[in-house]
Amino acid sequence: MTVKLSVNLNAIAMLRNRRDLPWPSVTGLGRIALAAGADGLTVHPRPDQRHIRFSDLPEIRALIDDEFPGCEFNIEGYPSEEFLELVEATEPEQVTLVPDDPQQATSDHGWRFRDEKPLLETRVARLKRQGFRVSLFADPDADEVDLAIAKSLGADRIELYTGPYGACHSSSQEAEKELKKLAKTAETAFRLGLAVNAGHDLTVANLPALVEQIPALAEVSIGHALTADALEFGMGATVRRFLSALGR
């Protein structure tokens, strides 16, 4: 199975926002990434617009529609009314709901499905009525009850939070433990009829083992490590390196 690569543009936008200038260009680097073989672009528009700005969304949508119509736009975020309205106006192919507090630096845990079911039930239903594919952020050790709730809500996919796996970059033994958790959770999700994405702290070095453990993985969303590598190798070459790490 081909694992798709979605390039997260948040870190590029954060660098741009350090100055009141239009560079580095979010859409310009997105164009290079897609031309190099990436399958889509991901953004996480937070309420304070500290990286991706709301004004970036129609520009990225137009880039994909006009130049790369076979690629996908994935918008992730906490399902506030403001976020849902942004999604509805932009019409991405995929919406990934994450349980972020607005003050968080980055996503660092999955949904507590039992506690958050009432909230998610209304938000997922609203998105599904409009035809969006919905993915829900899940912890690497989410159990069968959690995933069954995700399925019952109408979610199409989960996105496995791979931060703990990425944090084991200096310990192969700890990385192996985290991989087993991810693989077990993925197997449960597949059995329930959910497709599986993955994201957070994924690198050229740790992707091959993840794909080996979860060969039916649908998509990975990668931003920080990919952007860091792009500073060294350039965006086009970096995307090709990540595709190679995915076995493509």
How is this fold's topology laid out?
Elements: E1 4-8, H1 10-16, H2 26-35, E2 40-43, H3 56-67, E3 72-77, H4 81-90, E4 94-97, H5 113-129, E5 133-138, H6 144-152, E6 157-161, H7 163-166, H8 172-192, E7 195-199, H9 207-213, E8 219-222, H10 224-233, H11 235-245
Parallel strand pairs: 1-2, 1-8, 2-3, 3-4, 4-5, 5-6, 6-7, 7-8
Helix pairs in contact: 2-3, 2-11, 6-8, 10-11
Could you characterize what this model shows?
The protein is of the alpha/beta class and 248 residues long. The protein has one domain: Aldolase class I (TIM Barrel), CATH 3.20.20.70. 48% of the residues lie in helices and 16% in strands. It contains eleven helices and eight strands. Strands 1-2-3-4-5-6-7-8 form an eight-stranded parallel barrel, surrounded by seven helices. Strand 5, helix 6 and strand 6 form a beta-alpha-beta unit. Helix 2 packs across helix 11, helix 6 packs across helix 8 and helix 10 packs across helix 11. It is globular, with a radius of gyration of 17 Å. The N and C termini lie close together (10 Å).
Task: Characterize the biggest β-sheet.
Answer: 8 strands, parallel, barrel
Inertia-based shape: globular
The percentage helix is 40-55%
How does CATH name the architecture? Alpha-Beta Barrel
* Number of discrete helical segments: 11
Jot down its keywords.
248 residues; alpha/beta; TIM Barrel; 8-stranded parallel β-barrel
In short:
This protein is α/β, with parallel strands linked by helices.
